[in-house]
User: Which sequence fits this backbone?
């Protein structure tokens, strides 16, 4: 009986050992598991999906930028600029990418004045002292926005300062009728919203919309949105210096350009880089290698200064041009 029991135990052990050994022999699992799909950053709606833009798009995304199907180089989204953006309407010729602008712009902004007793979109300065008629009536303005409005858009309307409260009320009502379902807000001396203008250059006029009760609302920008965002905030990802090459593709230029470069002029950058130069967003031609040397030597430029506020306010000493020279102008109380 003892031998029979012992024989059964050995048999069971043999069976178990055989099964375990068999499992080990047939295990084909790889030592390292691969993802079944490649994880990519999601493209915003205004970014191009064209196959011809694929490699350039990948390079731009790493810098916090995208290319639209029209070829425009844009911020990856409006929040990159640190504030909601509103497109300043001055012409019926709108960029194609505005049809899919929800992740870039929060809406539109327009200045209006009465010309020959008819409301018209005008191109003007902050105080309406220099006004250029555009020939775009309120009805044409609404037609121009057809197909270019996102569900959550807000349209800001600023009539000329001499507009009476009744006329402004009629104007806002007219725009609301022409843009049903769209949030329309008027800006006047009697409204809670005021405007600050940050004039970075003649080509990038920024207007900051501020609700006096709720703080900042957003920033109005002209069509050169990349230039405007660069003036608002350093949002383009930095790179390290690389040896100068004899030639550059557009993708290679994107990979090596400093954050203050003009990424909308990649063709020109490809010509400049082999000679150790590049063009800044302000239009200056400067030395490529010198930019990185300066960042290593200058604690303010390197961003590791203990007194960042003073660094930001530092002015040109005559040897280095100040690229970002914002000038803030607030509307006087009498004009609000």
Assistant:
């Amino acid at each position: 009986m003892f031998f029979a029991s012992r024989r059964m135990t050995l048999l069971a052990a043999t069976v178990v050992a055989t099964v375990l050994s068999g499992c080990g022999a047939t295990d084909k699992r790889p030592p390292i598991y691969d993802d079944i799909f490649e994880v990519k950053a999601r493209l915003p709606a205004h970014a191009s999906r064209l196959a011809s833009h694929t490699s350039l798009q990948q390079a731009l995304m790493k810098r916090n930028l995208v290319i639209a199907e029209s070829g425009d180089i844009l911020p990856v989204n409006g929040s990159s600029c640190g504030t909601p953006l509103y497109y300043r309407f001055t012409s019926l010729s709108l960029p194609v990418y505005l049809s899919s602008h929800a992740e870039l712009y929060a809406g539109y902004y327009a200045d209006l004045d009465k010309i020959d007793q008819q409301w018209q979109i005008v191109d003007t300065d902050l105080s309406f002292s220099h006004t250029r008629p555009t020939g775009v009536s309120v009805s044409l303005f609404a037609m121009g926005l057809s197909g270019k409005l996102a569900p959550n858009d807000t349209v800001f309307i600023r009539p000329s300062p001499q507009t009476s409260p009744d006329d402004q009320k009629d104007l806002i009502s007219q725009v609301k009728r022409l843009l049903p379902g769209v949030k329309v807000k008027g800006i006047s001396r009697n409204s809670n919203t005021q405007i600050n203008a940050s004039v970075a250059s003649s080509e990038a006029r920024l207007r900051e919309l501020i609700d006096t009760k709720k703080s900042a609302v957003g920033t109005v920008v002209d069509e050169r949105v990349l230039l405007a965002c660069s003036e608002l905030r350093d949002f383009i990802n930095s790179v390290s210096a690389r040896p100068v090459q004899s030639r550059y593709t557009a993708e290679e230029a994107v990979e090596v350009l400093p954050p203050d470069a003009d990424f909308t002029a990649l063709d020109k950058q490809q010509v400049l880089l082999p000679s150790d130069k590049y063009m800044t967003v302000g239009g200056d031609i400067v030395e490529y290698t010198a930019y990185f040397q300066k960042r290593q030597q200058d604690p303010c430029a390197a961003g590791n200064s203990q007194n960042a506020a003073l660094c930001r306010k530092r002015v040109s000493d005559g040897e280095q041009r100040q690229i970002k020279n914002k000038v803030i102008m607030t509307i006087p109380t009498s004009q609000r």
Remarks:
- The mean pLDDT is 77.
- The longest strand covers residues 107-115.
- The radius of gyration is 30 Å.
- Residues 78-231 form one domain.
